[in-house]
Each structure stands twice: as C-alpha cells, then as structure tokens.
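Researcher: Here's the sequence for the chain we discussed earlier.
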Amino acid sequence: MTNELISTTKIAVFRKKKIRKTIHNNKWWFVIKDVVAALMDSAQPDGYIKDMRRRDAELAKGWGQIATPLSVQTAGGIQKLNCANTELSSYWDTICTPLEFNAPDDKKNK
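Model: Thanks. This is the structure I predict for it:
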C-alpha cells in the first residue's frame, strides 16, 4: 500500500504555493490546509480554518462531510490529513472568504 500511496500522491502548484493532493476513489483530493494557505496567503491556515468553523455554524456543522482524512505522503512520512475534492467547491468559497471583524463604532466612542 505504501508504494501505491506514494505513486498516487502528487503536488500541485497554485500561486507558487504547493498543494498536496492524492487520488481517492478515482478522484483527486486536495489537502484543505494547503488550499487555504494558497488562496488566502495565510501563514497559519490551521488557525484560519479553526476561526472560520467557530464563526460559521453551517460550516462547523457540515465539516464532517467536507473534510475527509486521507493518507498523504509528507516530508515526515505518511500522515492522515483533511482533504476535499473539487465536488465540494461550493464550500471552498465559504472557507476561503476573508474573515470579517466588527470594527468599533467610532460614533459611540465620541
């Protein structure tokens, strides 16, 4: 299985950022953390994803259907990483929407 996994795990490049991907059930699956890092130019994609799940109840509720832990070859060996395929592209929009923070209302502070 290890040789099969290595031959089906590849790296894609998007905006000069590496996105790990693997084949599962004859479809490409992409490591969610890598996609978020590339799309959002985030240095801490895990924290970004955690914040999005905390702020978006629907995303948090459906996370089990979005993220599928799959074995992916990494520099440290094979690891289970949360992956998603392109059929879940509607969720990418939700995950990769910039976080909005409520700015203080200057009128109230005057």
